[in-house]
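Researcher: Please predict.
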Amino acid sequence: MKTFKDLGVSERIASALVDGGVTRPFPVQALTIPDALAGRDVCGKAQTGSGKTLAFGVPLVQRTAAGAAPRRPRALVLVPTRELAAQVHGVLEPLARSVGLRTEVAYGGTP
């Protein structure tokens, strides 16, 4: 089985994944991460709990880190519910922090 580094994930992000207890990519991640890192569009469909957030989130963070300018939003993730917004933020925030990026979550009904 491949590792995240085998898929082209940077050392810093791969280490952040390991720190979070994620050591091996799930099938949806192994299929999508290399293409997404190369800048290709991907569309993945998988069951709940199959790793979809990291499948798009790892490439998003890695590609954003390469061209990020301070205090300028460079990426946006849209999701349909507050709960999912909080969940996605919780997964991506440690990865973003590992490469010097900040994340914010915004949804209706909060300041």
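Model: The mean pLDDT is 93.
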